[in-house]
Amino acid sequence: xxxxxxxxxxxxxxxxxxxxxxxxxxxxxxxxxxxxxxxxxxxxxxxxxxxxxxxxxxxxxxxxxxxxxxxxxxxxxxxxxxxxxxxxxxxxxxxxxxxxxxxxxxxxxxxxxxxxxxxxxxxxxxxxxxxxxxxxxxxxxxxxxxxxxxxxxxxxxxxxxxxxxxxxxxxxxxxxxxxxxxxxxxxxxxxxxxxxxxxxxxxxxxxxxxxxxx
Length: 214
What we know:
Layout: H1 8-16, E1 20-22, E2 32-34, E3 38-41, H2 51-57, E4 62-66, H3 70-78, H4 87-98, E5 102-109, E6 112-122, E7 125-133, H5 138-152, E8 157-161, H6 165-168, E9 173-176, H7 177-188, H8 203-213
Parallel strand pairs: 7-8
Antiparallel strand pairs: 1-2, 3-8, 3-9, 4-5, 5-6, 6-7
């Protein structure tokens, strides 16, 4: 699909229909639609909090933010040898951020952004797009904070798109396309608000809540 013909409103409709765009590489001007036969999801009550991750979060020297430095987090996700995030996707995500549909969770250490993740929200569904780390476990911490926050705000579905070994260690699983679309329809019928509560500032509380529900 030509970048010029795709708008952020069209993108929202595509996600609500269960498909999402990708580029072959960062300098490819074209996008293609993806509707995987097997879909990756992360159960919001099934995040796997390892002991090592819990210990790192409890050290107290990290803090998390929501919707701070959105562009920097997207750029961090794209800063790798091979990426599907091209200029068009970046601009569409920025537009959706300003419209209140794209969100970024960041992890900070000594006032430095060391990792994060971003995604889209529609109804009670959150579509995780990408994450990155500059220091050990930064993306895992971003995901932990995100899962805790989304659960508190009433979300029902965390779409991880594709399963990776990294995501599998955190509790993500594969489900069929048919099962995913059924869950998506159910989640879209719910009016969840990602800003109804502030992001939890206490890492210990996040760890305890996740441990109790997983």
